[in-house]
C-alpha cells in the first residue's frame, strides 16, 4: 500500500515535470529547434543528439516528455489506492494519461506536418490541459477540507482560471500565426500608442486586448483571494508573477529576444498553474467513507 503522503509527492513531481516539458517547448519554439530531431525518438537516425544546439534542445524536450509520460503512468497506477476513498483523484489521473496519449500523437503530427501553425496551437492547448489535470490530482488528494470561501468566490476563482486558459490560447495564436514577428512595439502595434490591425498584427492586438480585460479579472480574483488566509500567500505570489509576466511580455515585444520569448511562455504557464490551483483549493475535499459516515449519522434518529 502506497502512503498518501508518498502519492502526493509523486503527483507533485509529475506536475513539475509536465511544467518543465511546457517550458522546454517554449525554448524549442523561440530557438527554432522544432525540427532538431525530426525522427524522434531517434535523432537523425541515432539514439542521441548530435553536437548541435537545435538537436540538443529538441532531444531534451522529447526526453523530458518521455519522463513525464512515465511519471503519469506511475501516478495513474498509484492513484488506484484512492479509488474507494476519492474516485475523483483516480479519474483525474486517468484523464491525464488519456490526454498525454493524445498530446503525443499530436506532437508526432506536428513534426510530420513541419510545425503547421494550427497544430502548434492545439499542441500547446493540450499541454496546458494535461498540466491542469495533474495539478488537480495534487490538490484534490490533499487532506479533507470544507473548501475556501463562499459560493460566489468559488465561481469567481473558476472564471479566473478559465479566462487565464483563454488568455494562453490567444498568446499561442500570436505565435502560431507568426504575428510576433511583425509587431515590435508595446503596448499597441501602431508604434506603441495607436492600434494596428493590419495582417498578423490583428492577432497580436487581440492578445493584448485579452491581456487587458482578462488581466483585470485576474487581479480582481487575486485581490479577493487575499481575504482568505489559506490563499493569501499564493495570491501574493501570483500577483508578483503576473506583474513579471506583463513586463517580460513587453520585453519580448520590444526586443524579440529569445530569452524574453522563452520566459514569456514559462511564466505564463506559472500564472495558469496558480490561478487553477486557487480555483481547486476553494473546492471541498472529503473521503467517500467519511462522507457516508457523516450522512448516516445525520439520518440516525436522535
Q: Estimate the helix proportion, in percent.
A: over 70%
Span of the ends, CA to CA: 38 Å
Give the total of beta strands.
Answer: 0
Amount of beta strand: under 5%
The computed structural class is mainly alpha
Q: What's the overall geometry? A: flat
- H/E element sequence: HHHHHHHHH
Mean pLDDT rating: 84
Characterize the largest beta sheet: strand count, sense, and whether it forms a barrel.
none
Radius of gyration, in angstroms, nearest whole number = 21 Å
Contiguous low-pLDDT stretches (5 residues minimum) are 291-299
- Total helices: the number is 9
Task: Characterise this structure.
The structure is a single chain. The model is unreliable at 291-299 (pLDDT under 50). It is flat, with a radius of gyration of 21 Å. The protein has 302 residues and is mainly alpha-helical. Helix 1 runs antiparallel to helix 2 (53-79) and helix 2 packs antiparallel against helix 3. The longest helix is centred in the N-terminal third of the chain and has 27 residues, at 4-30. The chain is built from 9 helices and no strands.
Overview features:
single chain, 302 residues, mainly alpha, 0% strand
What does the secondary structure layout of this molecule look like, with pairings?
Layout: H1 4-30, H2 53-79, H3 87-112, H4 117-140, H5 151-177, H6 201-225, H7 232-255, H8 258-281, H9 288-299
Helix pairs in contact: 1-2, 1-4, 1-8, 2-3, 3-4, 4-5, 4-8, 5-6, 5-8, 6-7, 7-8
